[in-house]
């Protein structure tokens, strides 16, 4: 009663200590008011990085009402607080976007990895229809500790990349496409059936999950 | 009554004249005895090439009982009569098999194209996990009038090939794989969603259809 | 920074030389601003035909802002620049639309083939429920080097056409229908399972892909 | 205890009176011993026609042990007792099989209609890839009160037939095909989405159901 | 050019003579302007009943612009012209709606049967959760020549009805439901797997098809 | 005519006597006017609790027009009349919501159980990613006669809960999630395949059904 | 090393105390040797009822090698040890099998409920195609504390039963059927979408789970 | 001709140098004779570890014919040559098998990780139905650099584990289950939708892929 937050959420602010990574706030199924109350609750904990994912315009406004200095990336639908990217440790996280339309999801992965403490780079428009574009990035590809590959449509890029590098590949299917792409299912299946080993897959459009996992893989020893 | 063939089939021996290509006999759903009666019926028409597709051991024996000199390729499950490959006309049909397990289906496509009057070549084990294998065949790829690409699992090879050549690509998904390959559905979807234009798709394991279509595309002007 | 285009795209203007056909710009997943920047970038290359596909009203406005004389077909959601259809070479591309509702997709195929340099004709409302309509076009059908058949609902027309002509058939399923048509999946499956050989299939509503492929098949020798 | 039949079945011998058509015995999920006990139980009721459907070799032997004069059609996997086809009343039931492989299912429909009291004819190998074969049967088609059309693969025949006749069409998808036919699902979907009105659909391979329904439709006034 | 209708449609006004039933105009995929032109074209043929199905508000306005006296049923999204229901012949078509939400589709079936010349009755809210409601209509049910049963959710009503009557049952799945009803697929599957013989199925929400088929089944001898 | 309600509904007000629980009014497929007429009809029967489920804003207004004192919970989209929760009998119904986004559905279950006469408690945000939150509620969990567990995404919570308690678990999948959650299908499948016995499943987002069933399970002896 | 059981299993013999019901041994994925070792391990614990489910002939032999007096029901593929059914407490569990083919699964549910301490009855062949058979059992149906309804094909029986009784219904879909029954999926969906409240569903063919849940629901107060 | 291996395969023995990990031989789609020829070919390269995966009895015999000292694990269907496990470097790979039936796949992952140079441990029967079994291994879980979690049925274990550890989790769905587990699809979907971050997924039963990826993740810095 006295704590309206308790009516709908039980924040896990100890997760950073328990697991090494903080809990994120998935906005999509929450009302702006619920998001605002959570933002208020975390405002007293600047020691924990809080990411607000899948935030629409109204969610963003709600977060900014409580945390005016939060960083907001509308394309990736992500807010972060505190807003400063922490110093990076561990190996390089490289994020590839097969096409322009895969960019919002790729960007969510890239920002997540950076806010979780890794150095990260983002490369765009390297689809397999123009193979010279991938092959021209071989040195960069081979310098990464982990490669996140975002692709929709045929989802063929992770197989090609995994055949070229030593690092694990986190395949990130996107819902880009139409018809028999089934909202990303075609790309998802392609990635699950990669003929190259070293590929694992996250949910369709799950840029946050891909970036989080990449940060874990690229942890310093 | 007097014609047991009429009880189950009505052969279309005029198809060669009407459409330019003969009717094939799909054995999979027929009894060996039915196949034997058809073989007997075509034995009087050496002017028409008859292909018996998806022929198991017993189907093959039934064909050979009526047409002892028929050519039989057990791996492709194909019989042809008359057995001699006709002289080739038109452009080159190139058939790629992504992996060893795709070979039976690729071979069915290759033999079909040859029996329908085209020059055809077969290249094996050029999957995208070892891209140097595809790139090493660029000259051959670019000399073809049409490329048939057989692949299971992730089915990524047609996208890569179509990005490299001017010729149309007939994508031939195979049922090679397991788990979420769903008997070739994953490869089929990949191919339907190819990010490279110039790709069209036939049914899973339909080597005959791919070879037939390739022969039509590579027809002489 | 200095090149905002590089933040989201890496144009492949050499594709015409490498593959014989230019890259198209798929607008659906791009912002109007991204499309405008691409239109600006290609404005210096009138030697390459650029097609903008799946362009909504706002995408079209963005293209026309940079390329005011571009040709725009709102029904097909296609823009072309330079706007003049090039002189045609090669064989005839015939595009059939089974019903009125299949027309936008059929039109996209027809325009694509024409802008890629082929003679092309478009015939509408020839569904199998009134077979006399197809049979009345037999001479035209048999004069084509390739036939694109757009159909939704039962998707039965390509099977019927392929049984009547010598030319390859590019089956183009559309999302026309309701209920168990599953947005074009029923038509797609019908076409993949065609009992007539000589049929291959592109993605649902992929008029661009069908037209491109048809242009390749009908290339001059 | 004293009645072993009661442990697994409760025969509905009054169905003929209640609904005008007798209950059939679906053998597929029953043990031969269970089928034998049912055959024994109906042996005292020659006034009711009993059909045993989906009967394998062992089921047939079990029926014949109790009803030695039962009629058995192994291809249709059907037994009937009493074995004599009753005199026919009502309109003509016409059963079409698109291909040879659809014959067992078509035959089950044809026999069912006859044992339920209708005149019925069976025509085979009239697939849409050779349209002249259908068109050559127009008079017969137009003389029927109802047409059952069995087809696998693309399942396109019912749409074509329904566009040619006044009678209702019972579409009977079969599991004939491979790959993306998904055991008859492709044909089923084609039929559900028929662009010609006058088509309804029964379950895949449900020859009994199609024949039963046709008998009801063709009932005498 | 001079005939704008020819650009998108080829009306089949001879269908009434050829098949006994007129062609209907499926509005869903057409623009209001296209529908208006068709309405104009049929305005000279009052001898043929024309039904406009799946007509939204704008489609209806377009029809009424050309045919001001057309009958319009907004709930069924159906227009008919000429507006008068023709005199009925043949047997009774009975249409059941399992629940209130199934009413629009059931109504489309009921009106179609009436405009195609049959006597038809409509009964609502007879779902299986209250079996007494079905059982209370037994006499009416048994007086019908054919029963159309519209149901969404579990789609169980056709099985129950078919076990009670001698007449054929046309099962009409609706998209009523949520979650695992998958837009009517659950009801469709239930109906295809009916344990009672005498049931066939049309597409989800296809009230027009069900009514048309019922009219054919109930034709006078 | 004189009773507009009879045109679309046949209320089952005797269900309370026949089955012990009243009929609910599913608003989603009804017009506000239809809902209003039903509300009017039940206004004379305060002895029966009527729940209006899946009521949008307009449905709610329609109910309140006829039953101004009805209780309305907009989050659960539920109205109840008479508005007072009846005295509770039987065992405790415990409703868990795995995450904040599952709350509307969980709330529908919780309110339903209470209006059907059970004591019920609602606990929120106890997902398996923070297992300590579930384990901290063990005493409450073990005091329940039945536990309803609402979860989307991976739907893993019911398996975990069922391994901890003696009471039956009603698994309530929600459509919370994205991508390969397929609108709740992933959670539904998880729950159907629970490795812990004692779990049964209702339809996705079917809070009403879960609450109703829980009330039946927790009935007083 | 010294304990070969530990290489593949970690028995949970404390589950009876923790949850009130013992752990069962799912044989399907285990080797006979593994099952034998488990049987040996439980042989020292006659205080706990151990059920071996989905036991083939070889599994049964392996159990009987270690526990020669175990009770074995080959039709239900179930073994129980100690073999004596415990005295029953709580309410009546009623198990219905829609058809003969559903009997093995229904029997597994019935035996499970009895071995877990409930009184249970089994009724067979009460499918909805002959409604009089269900209606003839109304008194028995209404005396049960919980009803398990096993049905394949259309899976319509649980909806009908739930509309007739006050007790909760555990719907148990079976894989009985063919074609579009998809191995029980059609029945599963029907049950999930039941238009009658009071129905929840377990996995296809999960007789053990249904019986276990029913035992929990029918627990003494 | 002189090299029969070239007819079906093009070994990639340079992969170890190029990518750091050797190519494996997927036996499932190959004939024993093909496998034998490959084994012969690698016999001259003891510097490269060759794994033969998905090897049936006949495949194993074929490998052992050419490489008599190869190590063979029939349960995991894996052969390795040279047979000695190399010295381990990098972090600990921990492999969990939820149930006994998941053991073959888990074992394939465990052996793969070891042959690719990592320390690896295997823990069995830690399913979520008995949570104390997981919680009892917390120290071991938290000492791993990466955790592979093999689970079928509900596939809930990876979500639970990922909520407890800092290390990345490789979720490995298995085909263990029945009915609506759809051969592992249910578990796959659960894992893709994990509500705990840090989980990525490989194909169903892809123990080799999971072990390979885990080896990459646990590489020494």
Briefly say what this structure is.
Chains A, B, C, D, E, F, G, H: This is PurE domain-containing protein. The structure is a homooctamer of 221-residue chains. The first copy, chain A, is built from nine helices and nine strands.
Q: Describe the largest sheet of chain A.
A: 5 strands, parallel
Which term fits the overall shape of chain A?
globular
Distance between the termini of chain A: 46 Å
CATH topology of the largest domain in chain A: Rossmann fold
| Proportion of residues in helical segments of chain A | 25-40%
Beta-strand residue fraction of chain A: 15-25%
* Tally of discrete structural domains of chain A: 2
Structural overview:
Eight copies of one chain form a homooctamer. Chain A is of the alpha/beta class. Chain A has two domains: 15-81; 93-217, 3-Layer(aba) Sandwich (Rossmann fold). Chain A has nine helices and nine strands. Chain A has a five-stranded parallel beta sheet with strand order 6-5-7-8-9. Chain A has a four-stranded mixed beta sheet with strand order 1-2-4-3, sandwiched between helices. In chain A, helix 2 (32-42) packs parallel to helix 3 and helix 4 (103-115) packs across helix 9 (207-217). The longest helix of chain A is centred in the middle third of the chain and has 13 residues, at 103-115. Chain A starts with 14 loop residues before the first helix and ends with a helix. Chains in contact: A-B, A-C, A-F, A-H, B-C, B-D, B-H, C-D, C-E, D-E, D-G, E-F, E-G, F-G, F-H, G-H. The interface between A and B is medium-sized, with 33 and 33 residues. Chains A, B, C, D, E, F, G, H: GO terms for molecular function: hydrolase activity. Chains A, B, C, D, E, F, G, H: Residues 91-220 form the PurE domain. Chains A, B, C, D, E, F, G, H: InterPro entries: P2CMN_synthase_LarB (IPR039476), PurE_dom (IPR000031).
């Amino acid at each position: 009663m006295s704590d309206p937050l308790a009516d709908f959420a039980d924040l896990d602010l100890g997760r950073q200590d328990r697991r090494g990574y903080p809990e994120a706030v998935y906005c999509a199924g929450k009302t702006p008011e619920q998001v605002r109350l959570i933002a208020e609750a975390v405002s007293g904990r600047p020691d924990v990085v809080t990411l607000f994912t899948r935030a629409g315009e109204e969610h963003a406004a709600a977060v900014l009402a409580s945390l005016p200095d939060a960083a907001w990336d509308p394309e990736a639908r992500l807010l972060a607080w505190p807003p400063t990217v922490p110093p990076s440790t561990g190996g390089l996280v490289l994020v590839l976007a097969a096409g322009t339309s895969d960019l919002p999801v790729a960007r969510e992965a890239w920002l997540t990895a950076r806010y979780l403490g890794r150095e990260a780079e983002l490369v765009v428009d390297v689809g397999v229809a123009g193979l010279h574009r991938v092959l021209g990035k071989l040195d960069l590809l081979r310098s990464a500790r982990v490669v996140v590959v975002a692709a929709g449509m045929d989802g063929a890029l992770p197989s090609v990349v995994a055949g070229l590098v030593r690092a694990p590949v986190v395949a990130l299917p996107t819902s880009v496409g139409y018809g028999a792409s089934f909202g990303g299912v075609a790309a998802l299946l392609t990635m699950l059936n990669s003929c190259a080993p070293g590929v694992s897959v996250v949910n369709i459009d799950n840029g946050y999950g891909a970036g989080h996992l990449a940060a874990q893989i690229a942890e310093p020893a």
